[in-house]
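name: query_chain
kind: protein
chains: 1
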Amino acid sequence: ENSTPERRADDVAAILDDLGAAHADVFGSSGGAVTGLALVARHPDRVRALVAHEPPLLELLPDAAAQRAATEDIIATFNSDGMFAAWGKFMANAGFDAPSGAPEMPAPSDQDLRDAAHFFNHELRATTRYLPDVEALKNGRVVLG
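structure:
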């Protein structure tokens, strides 16, 4: 199934329920920051404070259409050329410089491939297309980093 920020936020609230925790202080980086923003919007009483580090809110950028196209290219690259090629494009799109003389990489494990397939095929698109509920976030303690 696709993993959306809203679904992950509901899952976090369910984990808090299972732990008997009324609320939490939350730190999320990248996609975790997007999940945190969705958590504040959907379950504001469950978050005392959120530090959202570098959420990839690509839909808010002036070049959102180009970013959507780049994301689709990354996903297509995963499905045609594999995990390492897709991660290379992902990192380049995120602004990381490619190391000179790419190191020889060990063959990925079956679990690595399953995790990558889930990320590229079921998480990346929904995470990068998430539009935060700005009004809901104004009522929470949110720090963007």
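note: Residues 110-128 form the longest helix (19 residues).
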